[in-house]
Amino acid sequence: MECNMSESAQLNAVAAHVDLSPFHFQRYFKDAMGETPAAYVRRIRMDQAAVSLWISDQPVTRIAFGAGYGSHEAFVRAFHRQFGWVPSQYRAHARQASSVPLPEEYTRAETVRVNRLASMPLLAMRFYGPYANVEAHWQKFADVLRQAALPLDRLQVIGVAYDNPEITPNTLIRYDCALVDCGFDQRPASLTELAFPADSYAQLEHHAPYQEIFSTYRVLSMAWLTSVAGEYAVEVIRAYEFYREPPWENHGAAQRFDLVLPVRKVR
Predict the structure, then answer these.
(1) pLDDT tens-digit readout, 208-243
(2) Which of 37, 95, 128, 206 has its CB surrounded by the most CB atoms within 10 Å?
(3) In angstroms, rounded to a whole number, what is the distance separating the alpha carbons of residues 236 and 239?
(4) Which CA distances in Å does 35 have to 22, 84, 163?
(5) What is the CATH number of domain 2-96?
(6) What is the architecture, at CATH level 2, of domain 111-265?
(7) Cα–Cα distance between 35 and 26 in angstroms, integer?
């Protein structure tokens, strides 16, 4: 459903994918998520639009079309209903309210590197909840992998973060625990196929407790990005965590991974 948010939601097709009638799919979905599939898609589109307004200089009209709206006016009305601001007001307010990077974060921004990364097939499990629960998500993910007898010590695992906690309610924040699919003979049925897309990415190492992740985000999305504003821009609102050490082994201690954001060269 999230893969086709730029198109009208095809409820029948999504329900058929999970072997349910549209009626039962909607009922189960609302029981689990607290909102209908259509409301879920609308909210995610608007959350992504809000992040784009904050982090990029794209024209509002372009963001409106990217969110699936056929006109600027319809997008402005829908955005105002969800956030209480029109897009231009929201952009100004969000940037003014953003926390300012610390001096040491500007220094750390000098270590950011941009590389072209190849595409990779992933197997992922979706979790919902605050970023404070991410380490618990990895513990549950590791339990699933152990039950499938996968070699935990030889896996490349990647976290996929979709939402900004200043925009999306904590209980609805999406996070995927994923591993690179090396063609396993047996894999858990609870894992979903994803694709890590080939692209240019800005990378910054995080080697600290997970609770300090927002400092690393500030370095990449504010300290570094503003320093290269005329050279690079971020348009795809998604972050990847390439773990250098198994996250389930460092619960409560320093986690070591590269935080990776897709970037586009503007000149």
Answers:
(1) 999 999 999 999 988 998 899 889 988 767 899 999
(2) 206
(3) 9
(4) 15, 20, 17
(5) 1.10.10.60
(6) Alpha-Beta Barrel (3.20)
(7) 9
Look at residue 96 and tell me whether its pLDDT is greater than 90. Answer: no
Q: How large is the average pLDDT for residues 99-119?
A: 94
pTM of structure: 0.89
Q: CA-CA distance, 140 to 177, in Å (whole number)?
A: 9
Longest dimension (CA), the chain: 55
- Strand (E) or helix (H) holding 240: strand 239-243
The per-residue pLDDT for 257 is: 98
Mean pLDDT of the chain: 90
Q: Looking at 14-18, 193-197, 213-217, 221-225, which range is the least confident one? A: 14-18
Which DSSP string do the residues of 176-210 spell out, in sequence order? EEEEE----SS--TT-EEEEEPPEEEEEEEEEEEG
Name the residue ranges covered by the structural domains of the chain: 2-96, 111-265
- Cβ(203)–Cβ(112) below 8 Å: yes
pLDDT at 1: 60
**Residues present in the chain in total:** 267
Q: Is the dihedral of CA 143, 129, 211, 200 positive or negative?
A: positive
Pseudo-torsion of CA 205, 221, 110, 59, nearest 10°?
Answer: 140
109 φ/ψ angles, rounded to the nearest 5 degrees: -60, -20
Identify residue 10 by its one-letter amino acid code.
Q
